[in-house]
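Why do we care about 3D structure at all? Because function follows from shape, and shape follows, mostly, from sequence. That is the central idea of this module. The next example makes it concrete: a single protein chain, its amino acid sequence, and then its structure expressed as tokens.
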Amino acid sequence: MSFNEQTYETIEAYLDQVLSDTERIAFEERIKNDPDLANEVTINREMRIQYGNSNTFTTSKYAPEIVTNLKSHIQSKETEELSRQIKEGKKLYDKNLARKKTIIRYMYATVAAVALIFLISTFFINQDLSTEELYAQNSNWENLPSLTVKGENQQNLAKGEALFNAKKYTEAISYFEGNESNNPHVLIYLGISHLESNNYQKALATFNQLKTNNTLGSHKAYWYISLTYLKQGQKERAIAALQLLRQNQNNYQYDKAGELLSKLKD
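And the structure:
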């Protein structure tokens, strides 16, 4: 739940212990009666413990998706256990400071460093990529075969290819339509043009036509169908298309499909 800026400022002041007694009592009464506010205070207090006790650190300073992921991460069992271990290490440090000051300080610093590395690697490095990000990583059209050397209706196809390479996909479609019969390369250009123009139904229809046209390039349809579902955010359908592709190791983008499947299933 989001709060207004005044509430976040009050949370900061409360955690910094700078509220007057009257303000503190009134705010604590709000916390008792508002579970969402109580949870927000707990989250911000835990964030200070995990990421530094900055008097300017509240969840309002970050993008909503980052805040959501941070909250989920902080409330996870792994972070709870890590926090417990750090606190136990601090207690041990305080208890034995006089007797083993140098050794314990080194151990505590090591634990803190490992904890920081764990949090950074777990939260920032291993974040799941969205279907949109995965589509962007796999929609590289630079290596498509050129249409200008295929010999049929070269003038129209050359114009269409030039527009396609200029990312003018909607304009390119008219030059490909009517010239795609039994030509897998034209079907691919046409399907991608529909896909990049967000005409998903036409893109799927074109790639299904490619799949059934009984040419040597028909197996490429599975890859482009999976990308079409991926761009729409239809994760399960993208996975199903990739699994069909992976049934034959001779299919186009077999290895890449395996990598993409792993990312989608994580």
